[in-house]
Amino acid sequence: MQLTDLLFDVSDGVATITLNRPDMRNALSEGMREGLDRIIAVIKEDAGREIKAVLITGAGRHFCAGGDIKAMQQRASATAEQTRRRMRRAHNRLFDLANLEVPVIAAVNGFAAGAGFSFALLADFILATPRTRFANSFVRIGFVPDWAGLYFLPRIVGLQKAKELVFSCRQFGAEEAKKLGIVHQILPEESFLEEARAFAGRFRDASPSAIGIAKNALNHSFEHDHRTMLEIEAFSQAVSYGTEYHRQAVDRFVGKEPPRFNWEAFEARAAE
Predict the structure, then answer these.
(1) Which of 137, 177, 195, 235 is the residue whose CA sits 20 to 30 A from 165?
(2) Which of 248, 249, 267 is nearest to 185 (CA)?
(3) Has residue 67 got a pLDDT over 80?
(4) pLDDT at residue 83, rounded to an integer
(5) pLDDT value of position 262
(6) What is the rounded CA–CA span in Å between residue 250 and residue 29?
(7) Structural domains present in the chain
(8) Any residues with CB less than 8 A from the CB of 195 and at least 6 apart, and which?
């Protein structure tokens, strides 16, 4: 697959997407956008087979500085209709990425601002280092948050805190982000990518169907009422009962064998 400003690799069950414009703090280019469309299509087709998790990171010392300001200047004459079409293409990409039926992990090394911050919020887990900085910087250039930031941010931090982060555009670090529920774990900078890959790799032995179905249901749980979620639960469990993974897991339990997937064992090994 020929890609511009992106690297893509699949190894040991983990698909790694690397934003690759380190000289521009990995600001989003048109090549990145087109490449993401192609990569997401590949992952959707394979999810749960060879690919058990997705890791997104940035080359160099930063994750993503957001949109390319110079490119915005070149698009200054675009009509509202042209801008809407461009945004709708992005929305298809972002919806598909957020709803991939495998865990998506954002390894945020350094700065994540504007659309780069929104991009990270699409992930199921955000990993950071002590020098990671976030900023919802859209208002500073007269924009409103995009790349699904208006959807995900208030769901993660609450409405009032989301307003404060959007209106102020202020930077905040990994520790505050962890307290707000944005960051799942802060890892040492010297072993960051290695530990992020190990985190993604822990899903290698998880049930692909159970993870995928549960993620899909959870992603839509805020839009449905109690009764509807119970119906989704019933249909989901019916599918899960019929999987080979479930049958083998029950046999292992009855036979007093250790489970294939054990989150606590991963946590214990990581703490050693």
Answers:
(1) 195
(2) 267
(3) no
(4) 80
(5) 86
(6) 48
(7) 6-204 (3.90.226.10), 207-271 (1.10.12.10)
(8) 127, 187, 188, 270
What mean pLDDT comes out for the span 251-271? 83
For residues 140-150, give the mean pLDDT: 92
- Give me the chain's average pLDDT, please: 92
CA proximity to 105, closest of 221, 28, 13, 21 = 13
